[in-house]
What does this fold into?
Amino acid sequence: MLVIGIAGGTGCGKTTVVNRIIDSLPAGSVAVLSQDSYYRDRSDIPLEERKHLNFDHPDAIEFELLAQDIIALKEGHSIEQPTYSYITCTRGEETIKVEPRKVIIVEGILVLHSPVLKSLLDIKIYVDTDDDDRLCRVIRRDIIERGRTATDVLERYEHTVKPMHREFIEPSRRNADIIVPNYGDAAVAINILLTVIEKKIGNESSTRF
It folds into this structure.
């Protein structure tokens, strides 16, 4: 089993990189664990207070549980991945069953910051994107998918997302084995990454872009 960590700032294009890896490897060979599924449950506080929590700080993530799930998968056991609602800012009652696969991708903004996660990753990847591009993607995503207003998104970006990126996420770039520059077409960088993955898992049947 190969465990790959993919990190980078909010809106950097991590999901795009994850999907290209999945599409390029044999069907059923990849499982994905999202850091966002492991936000700590804060249903004990009022909704209005929850909306103002700092979700970009490492303390917001239950890294211990995520690490336990990765270890369980590496040992050949299935796990029940939590779910999280960005609308209610609480952990859901339902879980998603994840089976061990040849490749496990762990993606999230703080994946390369957490010491406990770094020790479990075989390949560490950082997706690098211009701040302006990330902001545009965050505005579109949060308005469409998370029901926030443009004003709310901009205030959160200025007071939470941007400072947390500078303090925790950007410095974790130095922990990466591979940096994917996502400034438009990242196909070349992803192809290099796929070559590394194939060599690690002994798979020569991937589809190139």
